[in-house]
Amino acid sequence: MSDDPRRYAPATLRNRDPILAELRRLLPPRGLVLEVASGTGEHVAHFAAALPALDWQPTDLDPDNRASIAAWCDGLCHVRDPIAMDASASWPVPAADAVLCINMIHIAPWAATEGLMEGAARALPSGAPLILYGPYRRQGVPTAPSNEEFDASLRARDPAWGLRQLEDVAALAAARGFGPAEVTAMPANNLIVVFRRA
C-alpha cells in the first residue's frame, strides 16, 4: 500500500491546459489567487507551476484532499499551505485578487454557491474576477446528453446536488455586486464563467 497522499481526478489531465489558457487571460499579473474547493490539488499545482508570479491559496474541507494538495504542491514556494474552508461559512482569507472555483457548484448544496458569492464579494476589490468552471444548464441551449446523465447521477448521490441554471448563478452574483457573466465554452460541455466585482 502506497503512503503517497496524492489523489487523482481523471478529468484534470483533460481540462487543465484549456483552463490554464483562460487563466492566462483572466488572472492579474500578480497578487493572490484564492482557490475555493481545490479537490485533489492537481489543478493548483499545474496552474501555479505555469504562473509563478502569482501567489496561490488552495482550500478544501476534506483533510485527505488537503494532504493531497500539499503533496502535489510540494516545492512550489508561491503556493500557500492548503487550509480548511467551507464556502458557505466565514472565510479565513479576508482578501484576494482573484477567486477561482472549479467543479464545486454542482457537487455541493446551493448554500455553497450563495456563500461563494458572498465571500468573493467581500474578498475581491473592484474589477477583480470570480472565475468558475464546470457544467451548467442555460436557457434556450439544449443540455448535452452526457451532462443530463451526469446531473442524474449527482442527484442520485445527493438530491441537493446537480447542474445549476447559469441564469440563477448570474442573478445571485448580481445581487452580491458582480457584473454580468462572461461565458466561454470549454471542451466536454463545460463553461468558464467570469463575474467581475463592480
From TrEMBL:
Q: Which Pfam families match?
A: DUF938
Gene3D superfamilies on file: Vaccinia Virus protein VP39 (3.40.50.150)
Q: Which residues form the signal peptide?
A: none
User: What is the protein's given name?
Assistant: SAM-dependent methyltransferase
Q: Domain of life, per the record?
A: Bacteria
Please report the organism this UniProt entry assigns to the protein: Falsiroseomonas stagni DSM 19981
